[in-house]
Amino acid sequence: SDAHFPVPVSPSHVEYSLHYPHFFPSSDQMNDSKKIQFADIGCGFGGLLISLSTLFPETLMIGMELRDKVSEYVKERISALRVSNPGQYQNISVVRTNSMKYIPNYLEKGQLTKMFFLFPDPHFKEKNHRRRVISPHLLDEYAYVLGIGGIIYTITDVEELGDWMKSCLESHPMFEPLTEEELEADPVVKLLSCATEEGQKVARNGGQTFQAVFRRIVPTS
Ligand code: SAM
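# S-adenosylmethionine complex -> structure
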């Protein structure tokens, strides 16, 4: 359970020098201006982080993953990539955590520019909807850590969950959908269905996907 992993007491206690030693060479030389900007929630085996790393080499990114063995695997995968590609993959890292409880411990108000929810667990039964990673309540939290103009990307192969995520986002006063033109122009949108291990599995099986991509806005009162 959660009791077994440490959680920073606040975002200023996140150990940047351990996660991103290339950008933070020693802990007493903190580079206060550089912060994590992308978060992949339920990152699984880390395929998205790895694709994004070279696309945005100066942007710090974190994967959050609940399963211990999976997060350890991602850590090893990133270390191996750093060794075999000197100077690269320095901007990505992973933490084992329960994102539904601890996002405010890692991220401060307005710090993120992108947030990803790729192929989250569906929790089909009505009584389990409260376990879904997109919900009206959790969207308040995501709106808090995203800066104005920040983008939330969601995709699933479960139509019912796709409808649910979209309707939660549509109902929330702090999010608006990207237009077709904006979706076309965003290179990240193309990665949603193919960069992760789950996305590749769905594609191999010829499954349909349902995406919802929304921007954090200032609510109109
Ligand atoms: N995003 C990855 C992909 O597309 O390949 C993984 C998708 S997998 C179906 C969902 C992942 O979310 C699992 O690895 C699971 O352990 C993780 N997860 C579920 N609940 C979580 C939570 N509360 N906090 C962090 N990760 C969670």
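# post-check
The CA atoms of residues 4 and 27 lie 25 Å apart.
The beta strands are 36-41, 60-65, 92-96, 112-118, 146-156, 175-177, 210-216.
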